[in-house]
Each structure stands twice: as structure tokens, then as C-alpha cells.
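User: Can you predict the 3D structure of ABC transporter permease? Sequence below.
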Amino acid sequence: MAERGALAEGLRAYRLIAGMWIRSSMTYRTSFVVTVLGNLTVTGLDFVGILLMFSQVDSLGGWSLPEVAFLYGLSVTSFGIADLALGSMDVLGARMRDGSFDTLLVRPAPVLAQVGADRFALRRLGRITQGAVVLGWALASVDVEWSASKVLLVPVMVVSGAAIFSAVFVAGAAFQIYAQDAAEVQNAFTYGGTTLLQYPPTVFGKDLVRGVTFMLPLAFVNWVPATYVLGRPYPVGLPGWAVFASPLVAVACCALAGLAWRTGLRSYRSTGS
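Assistant: Sure. Here are the predicted C-alpha cells for ABC transporter permease:
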């Protein structure tokens, strides 16, 4: 009951802080629209790079353009949702260095909600929109015999993937509490992770695929369940039920990230600023 109350309090605080930043960003609506379109254009350059590659080859690691677009759309959409919700977590190190993190600790609101909603930026909708457009095209173009389980698995992948990336954001922020200045390390696993997942696992070495599957399970964002949808074998041996395990992996990642965050907060020592 206490945990449920804390969760409700955190969501309420997050909603209030995010709402404040949304109202602020909508004050200048033309600037907001231009910023969203600019973000949409910049993030779209990643897929333009993939299109340029396919202008020279027929397949990438044995995967066709619609299949790679399927991976791309899942990765970018899932990451975009997590980035919209918790993208400000990577500035935690800067907050600790300038002493402003101490201010959050004395406010009557959960610290995680405050950090996550800080500078909430609707411009990040551009990434989600771009990823969803590519995903929609891929679903219409990919050669798949659709079944009920495959259709249901697509939204499950998006939601589970967003949860997994959110857990990585929170775990990275917890690491920053210890390292003080580790934003680039965190970005290597968040932004770097979504870039990695945009390409088929067959283009990478098996050691890397094993690491992304068993150590930092980003593969469950799209690689593992997508092989079931597309009818392809996974490069690393997994039990058959693993293709449906993304929600369980997401729950486990969120639980571990929450534990890391609480441990980090308990170990934090003020800068004295």
C-alpha cells in the first residue's frame, strides 16, 4: 500500500512538473512547431543513411529494406517514448556539480519524478513521429504471414522497449550519482543502444549479440521478438518462449533500475555548494 501511494505521488509530481514545461514551451507556438520539425528532420537522417546503403546493396546481413525498417521503426519509436519521458536524466551529473541536485532532495516530491520531468521537451515528439512513420511503412511492406500473435506482439514490443530504455535511463542516472560526471557513458547505452538496434543482429559479431542479449538485454526491444514476427533465426541460441519475454525483461530491468536508483540516492553526499 505504501509503495502504491509513493508511485501515485511520483506520477502526480511528474505530471505537474511536465505540465509546467509544456505550458512554457507552448508560449511561443511557432518556435515550438519549428523545433519539432527540426527534430523530426534531424532524426530522420538516420533512416536516410539506411536508404543510401540499400541503394547500393539488396540486403544487409541477409535482411531486406522493409525488415531493417521494421527494426528501425521499433527501436526509434520505443526509444523516442523513453526519451520524451526521461530524456533529462542525463543532466544529473551537471546538477550534482553545481549543487542544484541538493535542492531537489529537500522538496516534498519524489526525486526521480523531479529529475525525469525536468525540462520536459515536447520537441522530442519528432523522434516518435518519425519512428512511427517508418514502422507503419515497414508493417505495410514487409513480407510476413500475419497471425494474431504476431499482430499483438508489435505494440507489446513498442511498450516493452520503451520500458527497457527507460530503465537504462534511470540506471544511468544512478551511475552518475557515483561517477559525478558520466553523461557520455549513459548516452553510449541509450542513444548508442537505439542506433545499434536499428540494424539486424546478423551484421554484428556473436560476442556483441550475446552481450546485448544476456548482459544488457536491449535485444528484447526488437531483435529477439522481431525474429519471430519475420520468421528468422536468432544468431544466439534461445528457448522458443524467449520471443515473448520482452514484457518480463522490461519488468526485471525496471526493478533493477529502481533498486540502483534508491541505492545511489542513499549513498549520495552533498557537494556542499
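The chain has a mean pLDDT of 88. Residues 148-179 form the longest helix (32 residues).
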